[in-house]
Design brief:
Layout lengths: L3 H13 L17 E13 L5 E4 L10 H9 L4 E4 L26 H11 L2 E6 L6 H14 L6 E4 L23 H18 L4 E5 L19 H9 L5 E6 L5 H6 L4 H15 L8 E7 L8 H16 L4 E4 L10 E3 L2 E3 L27 H12 L5 E7 L4 E7 L5 E7 L6 E8 L9 E5 L7 E4 L5 E4 L3 E7 L16 E3 L6 E4 L10 E10 L2 E8 L3 E4 L7 E10 L11 E4 L8 E10 L3 E10 L5 E2 L3 E4 L5 E7 L1 E6 L2 E6 L5 E2 L4 E11 L10 E2 L2 E2 L1 E2 L1
InterPro entries: CBD2, CBM2/CBM3_carb-bd_dom_sf, CBM2_carb-bd_dom_sf, FN3_dom, FN3_sf, GH, Glyco_hydro_b, Ig-like_fold
Organism: Micromonospora aurantiaca (nom. illeg.)
Protein name: Alpha-L-arabinofuranosidase
Amino acid sequence: MRRTTAFAASLLLLATALSTVGGPVAAADPTDPVTVTVNTRAGLATVPATALGVNHAIWDSQLGSAETSDLLKAAGVKMLRYPGGSYADIYHWETHTAPGGYVAPNTDFDTFMAGARRVGAEPMIIANYGTGTPAEAAAWVRYANVTKGYGAKWWTVGNENYGNGHYGSAWEADDHPDKSASQYARLVVEYADAMKAVDPSIKVGAVLTMPGNWPDGITAGSDPGPWNQTVLSIAGPKIDFVDVHWYPGGSPADSLARTNHLPDAAWLLRQQIARYAGPGADRIGISFTELNVDAGRTTAPGALFLADAYSGLLEQGVFTVQWWNVHNGIGTVSEVAGQTDYGDFGLLSSGNCTSDGEVCQPAFNTPFAPYHALSMMNLFVRPGDQLVRAGTDQPLVAAHAVRRPDGSVAVLLLNKDPDNAYPVALDYAGFTPADEAPTVHTFTNGATAISTSRSGDATARTLPPYSLTTLVLRPAGSSAGRPGAPGRPTASAVTDRAATISWPAATPGGSPIAKYEVHRQYGAVSEQLGETAGTSLTVGNLEPGARYTVNVLARDTAGRVSWSSPPLTFATGSPAESSCAVRFDDDNDWGNGYVANVEVINTGAKAVDGWTLTWTWPTAWQQVSSGWSATWDQQGRDVRVTPTADNRRLAADGGSTTVGFVGAYSGPNVPVGAFRLNGTVCTLR
């Protein structure tokens, strides 16, 4: 459940971030065709059965009603979360009470499960951490899966528990005297042990925070590090997934631009899991169980954000994305792009009015724009589809794509411009569409339903302002006889300049497999790194400190090419030996900025008289705000540091100097991978 204090904390951090970083992008000439590239050779994650989700809440008396359940089923909902955000930390399932909160009739657990079964959705249940116990959670598992046989698989320990006051802002109930991240993690272990003693088959999740969002990066009290590091270090061996929320805040243009943060946020989450969660950490999945916007919640901005964020997160391998929520109630009423926005977090109207009775919502269960966006997602992605790379050359037009098992391709196009239509020209790599009119699904600003037709062709379309469009395209030829896709690649022997990529062999189709090709994803374009007849390839000429996403394709003796393998993302390091080294220390972090000390070390045999240190930020929203002990300059993402008169000389064999700066970020704070001293790549210590 979203509360004002949570928003206030997030908005405070956003307001103090640099306004020039990651802000809305001005529209280009809308008469110029936008180039959309769909690259089916650049495979991303496969769509899971639990992909499309939404939250239910115990203050909603229609939680289990046939009408509400049927609307959710029609929108393709496959996972339902219960009992409702922050209410989970005051809710006692056995007595069906939530002291301090409102519990509507007909919202008990059995009613919820009946509704979930009618929807055809798996439940995700939040065990009460704030005012509950491991024994209470274990009893709930026993009732659900032993007594009733519901087979409820997914259980999270608590909700937004970092909001218990440990970092200064408090909205989440927490009766524990020790409110630290360490204590939360220790109790997650107790919860997991107690719950799995009842049913070892369940999956238990722990709450993490979104990279780049409060309180990410902040260390409080005696914790060994920030929330995510602390929780993963202690509870990592016991959990099966992590649970993350994201409310990007800001204006409609702000929230729609910030979906660009998702690849870096997912990368950082996986890096944190791999680093801190212990052996076998790759088993830990990622769920995003609350998303919404701050402006335009019931109108086109909310719809566009839902479709863009769901698609972006599923591309990164998240196993479920869940909107907040089904019914929530009227909020601050405004006008957005000519439409009345009711400030309601719900997908469906609650049918209520403002306190003064001046404005009332439409009839109960009337779908809002985000509901139609969720329905569009159900037309776009299906379980088993493989998401593939798609991109555009216009920031206000976004594209996503999937390749289906039958060989067809679906393309989702979003126009985030409230005022202008954009013509688009579509180009396909690794796919030839049939010479016929595609199936076209369209949702426009102010519409009350998705329109469907067969019209136009596969290569050109005009996108109305603030609209969602899905094209479903059949292939020109048959895919019979092509080899199967290679298995998921792995990387080993990764250095600053090379890596060995290995993969499980593909299954031959109509002809023997002749070779495998390793392709790097470079935006929506693929760049071949090499090929081999075997199932392993060492690739060289890589850039130090860079991130690479690669796929493997199989090609048979008849020239037929497989689907791409699942993606592999890895990062090169710094050189093991160099004539320089850099130690970068940014432990003093307050959530959207930090103080960093940078030690520059001459490890060469000759003294350095005059030096220039350079690096490139991984993202556009990272910046040097001010610095000392050197002259600091940033142009775009490139940083240049030069010495003062008293530290220009670095003695041979270890001579060093330390300089510092205040850094700022308004998105995931991705670490710098490579520093250069006078053009030489340094070892990163």
